[in-house]
Amino acid sequence: MADSDCFESVEESSSVGRGYESDFSTRAYLARQSAKQQQSKYSTKRPFFRTQPATIQQTIASESSNQNSEQGSSKKLNILSFNCKNLKTSGNFIRKMEKEIDIFLIQEHWLFHCELNMLSEIHDNIAGSGKAVDSDDPISASFMPRGFGGVAILWNKAIDKYIKPITDGSTRIQCVELLTSKPTVIMSVYLPTKSTTDSKIIFDDCIDQLYEIVQKYKETHDIVIGGDFNEDIVKETNNSKRKIALLEFMKECKLTTNHKGPTFINTSGADISEIYYFLHSNIELQPSKKITDHPVNVSDHHPILLQMQ
């Protein structure tokens, strides 16, 4: 979400939205500092950005989750990351994509804790797990303001037995474990905008939490983090402290990503910034793709697709 978006000020200024600061952020910070000293001795350099594909596909590749099931382990797993900007208005997009996507990483579903059951009511073939801005301290249904924020992960019920929701992270981070021969921790993240004075504090806290989760699982799992980072790490003229912190996190955790072009659409309909990424530890994964001009996408964000073998 861009700083000029009128919805951002509502989200970040609301008292309900506070409380993102994690109780273990100090511990995570100290762990990061200790790890830096070790990594300075033993780490090897890896590029942040993969080579951009020759063309950006506007539609999803032909390997869909419900096709060619006879291929077994050779079938690709399609993961879509999407800032839906209100699940109640973007649910039709998810229903249209249901046959092609195995796992949806959702940001800004705008549901409150008492409404999270809606995640599993979008489609008969979809299950889900998520967090709302008030999940740590649920508010009464009779006093709910307009929705904002929230993260979730949805998945096709055909792979239900391979998905295990895990509780790590704050209400800006939703995690699941993909139980395959080499298990993968998949995270949907929504980092704060720059619209308030404490956004850098919240941003750093989220980065510390992500760092701690990666350290917890990196020896036994692959890592995939997808979502709205609200920071353009590609733009050369951007020298913000948030960008530096995010790039440092990627370096410490040996995560890579790729450049897809602008993913946020401003009020004039122009694509203006790339704030949407997949970060992952598996360098053999194909570069993610931006999906544009989908007829039922009413969000001001372009979804991005990552395919796993």
From TrEMBL:
It comes from the Eukaryota. InterPro entries: Endo/exonu/phosph_ase_sf, Endo/exonuclease/phosphatase. Residues 185-304 form the Endonuclease/exonuclease/phosphatase domain. GO terms for molecular function: catalytic activity. This is Endonuclease/exonuclease/phosphatase domain-containing protein. It comes from Mytilus edulis.
